[in-house]
Amino acid sequence: MIASIASEGQETRPAPFGHALVEAARADERIVGMTADLGKYTDLHIFREAFPDRYYQMGMAEQLLFGAAAGLAHEGFIPFATTYAVFASRRAYDFIHQTIAEENLPVKIAAALPGLTSGYGPSHQATEDLALFRAMPNMTVLDPCDALEIEQAVPAMLAHDGPVYMRLLRGKVPVVLEEYGYRFEMGKAKIIRGGTDVLVISSGLTTMRALEVARTLEADKVSVAVLHVPTIKPLDTETILREAGKTGRMVLVVENHTVVGGLGEAVARVLLQEGMAPKFRHIGLPDEFLAAGALPTLHDRYGISADAIAASIKGWL
């Protein structure tokens, strides 16, 4: 049930995080790779094959993983630590909070299976990770869309002076943004395509789906703009306000995260603080423990598939 998120026939690249980290490590000897028994499932095995002496397998002990990463960071290394998002956000939160974030150490966390990208039920579905890490001082929070953005985010994480939490799409990851000439910039939201009827604000997997929806709704003469927000914290309020302030468009936030505490609430807060009141809608995962099952079925059930998003937009319009 850890299924591919690629649509049929969609171009993919294997293990973009692992390959990008190897390229970064060739030029920077401070980089070490660390994981808690999940190297194969977070694409860190690519790094292990290239740099076995800089790879640390910590076993099924996430608290130890992040405590040790903090220690290595204190000694001048830059650890890239990988696990599943549920284990980073729930099992090891206090260790990250106290040993990494409070010390503002350059530990880079790459967390696989974010939101609803696993069909294994609540034990593996990190539906609240953005809310948790947004609330952690000093933590930069990223939610990249595709293989291209993951590749570009790795060197940006390395260059950032402080801890970073990145949601990680693993395995054969779709390539979506390349055709738009996209370049990742930490802290920047970017318009991927323009539109006059609806502004979709999204991140991660849901930007991929929003672009599918925009193409589909063209047949119904519905013009959809897509604003991609890969940096959840710090939020690019300037771009969000500029785009949301354009009159005549419904503003819709779509996210692969619970509706509590994620991108939707962050955007709504920004709009209200500035006195903006566009027609606002929000699609996210419900505030409940989600079912297990096949991903396409679950995405339809919880409203974040391309078909479900398109149907919601047409209904609201």
From TrEMBL:
<dbReference type="InterPro" id="IPR009014">
    <property type="entry name" value="Transketo_C/PFOR_II"/>
</dbReference>
<feature type="domain" description="Transketolase-like pyrimidine-binding">
    <location>
        <begin position="11"/>
        <end position="175"/>
    </location>
</feature>
<dbReference type="Pfam" id="PF02779">
    <property type="entry name" value="Transket_pyr"/>
</dbReference>
<dbReference type="InterPro" id="IPR051157">
    <property type="entry name" value="PDH/Transketolase"/>
</dbReference>
<protein>
    <submittedName>
        <fullName>Transketolase family protein</fullName>
    </submittedName>
</protein>
<dbReference type="InterPro" id="IPR029061">
    <property type="entry name" value="THDP-binding"/>
</dbReference>
<dbReference type="InterPro" id="IPR033248">
    <property type="entry name" value="Transketolase_C"/>
</dbReference>
<dbReference type="Pfam" id="PF02780">
    <property type="entry name" value="Transketolase_C"/>
</dbReference>
<dbReference type="InterPro" id="IPR005475">
    <property type="entry name" value="Transketolase-like_Pyr-bd"/>
</dbReference>
